[in-house]
Amino acid sequence: MLTQESVEKKLRAIVCKTLKKKPEEVELTSRFREDLGADSLDLIVILHEVEEEFDVAVPDQQVPKLMTIGDALRYVSEITAS
Amino acid sequence: MKRRVVVTGLGCVSPAGNDVPTTWEGLLAGRSAVERMSLLESEGCQCHIGAPVRDFNPEALDCRQDVSRIGRSSQFAIAAALEAVRDAGLKSPDAFRSGAIMGTGIGDASETFHQTQAYLKRGVRGIHPLYVPRVMPNAPAAILSLQFGFKGASFSVSSACASAGHAISQGLRMIQADDLDVALVGGCEESFSTVIYAAAFDAIRALSRRNGDPPAASRPFERDRDGFVLGEGAGVLVLEEAAHALRRNAKIYAEISGAGMTSDAHHMTAPVADGEGAIRAMSLALKEAGEAPEEIQYINAHGTSTPLNDRVESLAIRKVFGRHADSVAVSATKSMIGHLVGASSALGVIATVLSIRQGVVHPTINYVNPDPECDLDYVPNVARRMEVRGALANSFGFGGHCVSLAARRFDKDRGAA
Fold it and tell me: Which residue of A has its CA nearest to B122?
């Protein structure tokens, strides 16, 4: 099973790569749109990369609730644990 | 009076270099950019050679969009357009009167190859959300419009190897028709992100198999030619309404004085044997330019190095120009940089307007043994200093599409044709 730490590391890597950010620019509380400048296409790409990386399917109704890396971390940890 | 159209900026990414000065220097030096390609060899193609773009770093481009959202051919296009707009010194033209019309033969269809592999591995969930913006053939036109904030007409056209010719013609027409004052026009193509295009052109027996001597493989109009060499890249020209260019004291390379567009209606891949479509295209371009054959000193040939194209194009030039055909210099850009497919005509027109401006034409290299069926002056092997006042640039595509563009030295006092 993935540790919380390794999930976070992978999520950060996905966000940094997609949004072309340096690791130090990205906090767990950074909001994708407001703080990191993501647009709708970026969000969909991040979602796709997350689904690929963790082999999960994120239902559409979950997506609006995932506004920060922290949100994504909690969600991914939950469903990979179950 | 008809609105006249001039070229005020040039940009390219080519196998001979990732800008116009480097590419032009290579063309004038008669340097081949064809090399052995391990990708083609290891995959088992019969043809092991190509002319790839080298050292291209899309991340280094000053692109307003994330370059991962577009495919490699669109990345070539944006690089060429950035150079062209800079060269034109175009600051902030009226956005509503500025547009982008790009040609591509296949575009970034390689994305379909990659996404098909993802699908086979992981099903529909493997399909990447950027597949559509990357693969759509209008991406190169869209990315140029976004980059420069051009809000006039922007779209792509496709006619295989004549795509850029049609895009340039369409830009000409839209400026003439008073729809636009400024048009970014040209073409782009990428050929080697997968092996499938080379394999396909190989399967259709269109490619040279002179694997032992890559620089000698592309030999348009020469007796021992055995097919074309696949290249890739992009070329973009800034077309501008002449008065618009004069008002801002722009550097004017040449006037685009006419376009002839025809179809063979004959065969999906072969030109019609008597060159009828090519003959009419050149004749229509001359007619629109108001020029007699004697006023043309140079023709940038489609000149692919396939046995059939070069024979038919030579025949067509002779039919249109009659006895004057012996006095026209004809050269083939593809002898050095291979066939850039949907971008090829953009490079040909760039070479043509540079010849007009600088008084020098590039050679057709690898010209050793004349072919009795190709009996024109092909500027063999060495560039030639000569005055070029009027010129044609030809492009012909699979499907029987023929385009000939007429260009001439710009004379502001000359009445529109």
Answer: A52
* Dist. CA B339–CA B189, nearest whole Å: 10
Lowest model confidence (mean pLDDT) among B199-213, B252-266, B357-371, B402-416 = B402-416
Do residues B194 and B313 both lie within one domain? no
What CATH number is associated with residue B273? 3.40.47.10
What pTM, to 2 d.p., does this model score?
A: 0.95
- Residues of chain A with Cβ-Cβ distance to B64 below 8 Å are none
In a domain, B20, yes or no: yes
Nearest to A57 among B69, B125, B126 (CB): B125
CA–CA separation, B128 and A2 (whole Å): 24
Distance CA B390, CA B298 (A): 7
Residue A28's SS3 state is: coil
pLDDT one digit per residue (tens) for chain A, 82 residues: 678 899 999 999 999 999 999 999 999 999 999 999 999 999 999 999 999 999 998 998 988 899 999 999 999 999 888 7
Question: Where in the sequence is the domain holding B400, given as residue range(s)?
Answer: 258-408
Mutate to test the interface with A, among B69, B125, B131 (most CBs of A within 10 A): B125
